[in-house]
Design goal:
The protein is mostly helical. The protein contains 18 helices and no strands.
Length: about 525
């Protein structure tokens, strides 16, 4: 058992490069599957959204409750990643990974048997706590297990594994929903957790961290409350369709002030949970922002893709999962390819081009309508995945390259926090755009409905179709499809603009860094 408490990185003799050992590859497999569990939970829910909205088969969740069922997980995940990184550096990365797995597995079982949309939202938040302990530890353990010669390859495999989740999650969710109740999409996490816990005990190094970082409770509270206020304002503003509501404006103001205070506090404390000083490095800043904006577009587009396929095209959950799978082909191609391209052309060119490709994939939704074939749709998904895969691996390596060895846990937390913040804002912003535009499109078509039915029908496309079926008004169902497609076009343009901004930022920041370092 003593071998389990020693680092498993092998040091090669000078001048004799050594390939990773079988034990190192097994350790990487455990870390990939640990991350896979987290990513699966991001993707399985997308296909289940329409079922959860159904009052008979699901929980009768409203559009803003659906947004919160996604956002409660990603928001808690994002803001507690800072704490998870610090705790991992302080108490040992494997210890935090094991703790996170147990929390994640227990909360998954809770979510599976939630009795209401509100309970599901709370359970999803608890799952976010577990994920926040898991993710910083996975990337930090890669840095511990692999030396600099093989670390980039290991990180590329780790990053590319998200593509497996993107492909497997929707298909797995669809298959389960076709045969079982909606809670099965969360219960499937439990056996994955059991396998990862066993693998962690067998193959991961358990040595305690040498530097014991201090906990930063004030930073955690400020970041959590500040981001929550901003996301709440975005989601509720879209739901109420009233951005001048004093509550919405007040939440925006409070959130912005708290985030600003958070930055000022983190600049002053000796051991911040989120070291904002790292953003003085242009490469770190550019890579972090690029990661955030990439996931803004991806998570936002996946949110409305499920409703497009299941609502407009009337696909079953399994058909929807299979239809989304091509995005993973792009990710699995882009992630390993990017490592070779970066060696030849540099991070700046590769990531900027990758984000332009992703931008094209996001924007291409404007060419889809209620009659579009799946072939064109799959091409757009592959473009999205290719751009995402080629952008995320090099930016992750660039982030880790500027971190001191004793801050890898906190540094990986920054990387994953930027992903999750981008994802939660993508769902919040693009989901609110979708809801607001749809309401504006469908409301004029409801003049002939009874007052109660009209109020219910404008809630969402699913509600409109439900009322259309009850009143035997097939034309109203057609209006729902047309209104949703128009709203999706507007949301796609917003997502594409954000991704394009990421390409500009990565190009500018890495050019600036090159000039500063005198490398041209």
């Amino acid at each position: 058992m003593a071998a389990q408490n020693t680092a498993i990185t092998d040091t090669a003799p000078a001048g004799a490069p050594q390939s990773p050992t079988g034990r190192q590859w097994l350790a990487l497999a455990v870390l990939v599957f640990s991350q896979l569990a987290v990513w699966l939970d991001n993707t399985v829910l997308n296909v289940a959204l329409k079922t959860l909205a159904d009052p008979d088969e699901g929980l009768g969740a409203s559009p803003n409750q659906l947004q919160w069922s996604i956002s409660s997980y990603t928001l808690v995940f994002a803001v507690l990643l800072f704490t998870g990184g610090v705790l991992a550096d302080r108490y040992g990365h494997r210890n935090l990974l094991l703790t996170g797995m147990l929390v994640f597995g227990g909360a998954s079982a809770w979510a599976a048997y939630a009795g209401s949309a509100t309970e599901l939202i709370v359970a999803r938040g608890a799952m976010g706590i577990g994920s926040a302990l898991i993710m910083p530890a996975t990337l930090a353990l890669i840095a511990q297990v692999f030396d600099e010669r093989h670390r980039a390859t290991a990180i590329a495999i780790w990053s590319g594994s998200s593509g497996i989740a993107i492909a497997t999650g929707p298909m797995l969710s669809g298959a389960l929903l076709d045969h079982f109740w909606w809670g099965s999409v969360f219960l499937v996490n439990v056996p994955i957790v059991v396998l990862c816990v066993a693998g962690s005990l067998l193959f991961l190094p358990g040595a305690a961290a040498k530097v014991r970082q201090k906990f930063d409770p004030l930073g955690v509270v400020l970041s959590t409350v500040g981001l929550f206020a901003i996301v709440w304002a975005v989601i509720e503003g879209g739901h109420r369709n009233d951005w001048n509501d004093p509550a919405i404006l007040g939440a925006f103001a409070v959130g912005a002030i708290l985030v600003l205070v958070f930055v000022l506090v983190e600049l002053r404390v000796a051991n911040p949970s989120f070291d904002v000083r790292l953003f003085r490095n242009s490469r770190f800043t550019g890579a972090s922002v690029a990661v955030m904006l990439t996931f803004f577009g991806l998570n936002g587009s996946m949110y409305y893709t499920s409703f497009y396929l299941q609502g407009v095209h009337r696909q079953t959950p399994l058909e929807c999962g299979l239809s989304i799978a091509p995005v993973a082909i792009g990710v699995l191609l882009g992630a390993p390819l990017s490592a070779k391209l970066v060696r030849a052309y540099g991070v700046r060119r590769v990531v900027a081009v990758a984000m332009v490709i992703a931008t094209a994939g996001f924007f291409a939704y404007v060419f889809l309508d209620e009659h579009s074939g799946l072939g064109l749709f799959w091409v757009f998904l592959i473009l999205q995945g290719l751009g995402m895969g080629a952008a995320v691996a090099p930016t992750t390596e660039a982030i880790m390259a500027v971190l001191p060895a004793d801050r890898t846990g906190a540094g990986s937390a920054v990387n994953n926090a930027m992903r999750q913040i981008g994802g939660v804002l993508g769902v919040a912003v693009l989901g609110s755009v979708l809801a607001g535009v749809y309401r504006g499109e469908i409301t004029p078509k409801l003049d002939d409905l009874p007052p109660g039915a009209a109020d219910a029908a404008e809630e969402s496309p699913e509600a409109t179709r439900l009322i259309a079926g009850r009143l035997s008004m097939p034309r109203l169902s057609d209006f729902a499809d047309q209104g949703f497609v128009h709203a999706m076009h507007i949301a796609a343009v917003v997502g594409a603009i954000v991704a394009a901004a990421g390409a500009v930022i990565i190009w500018w920041t890495f050019r600036r860094a090159a000039h500063t370092e005198g490398t041209g």
